[in-house]
Amino acid sequence: MGTTTLLILDIEKGTVDMLGNTGTYLQRLGSAVAAARSNNIKIVHVITAFRTGYPECHPSNSLVPAMAAMGKFQEGDWTTEIHPAVAPTKDEVVITKRRVSAFFGTELEMILRCFDTEQLVVAGIATSGAVLSTIRHASDLDYRITVLRDLCMDRDEEVHDLLMDKVFKGKTDVITGQEWMERISANLSA
């Protein structure tokens, strides 16, 4: 039987800083990460970071030129450091992506296969970006997906709710972080 993996998307200091007012969000996310660790659930952290000089910057891409213009999210910059509220342990995998989806151009699929992952639990920023793109890709790869509604965040709350209530619901299991923690504590299907 396959395992469950918790996927934490784009909880870098720079992303958290841009959103502001994330205190209770980070506290809830930190609790879910602690619960996963205490229940021996694998955790994969995914960050966005570009090489010096942004060689990944293609003129037709709308995201990378904006990052390059800000001069942020380059490898080694403080903006790419994972926020201390969910900082990985030495045993947890950190994957660097250069596009929106955690799968595109990364080794995430290989890591999940090596973990024998069947169930993917997703949390992170932004619901309309990394979360949406990663869930769509994971669905095409036939993972069972749980989305932690209150542990995903977007600048636009209306878009967040639309994605959770209309797009993800029915295709994934959409629950709160607290509901998920109760499930794994009861050893139910995570």
From TrEMBL:
Pfam families: Isochorismatase. Keywords: Hydrolase. CDD domains: cysteine_hydrolases. It comes from the Eukaryota. GO terms for molecular function: hydrolase activity. Residues 4-178 form the Isochorismatase-like domain. InterPro entries: Isochorismatase-like_dom, Isochorismatase-like_hydrls, Isochorismatase-like_sf. Belongs to the isochorismatase family. This is Isochorismatase family protein.
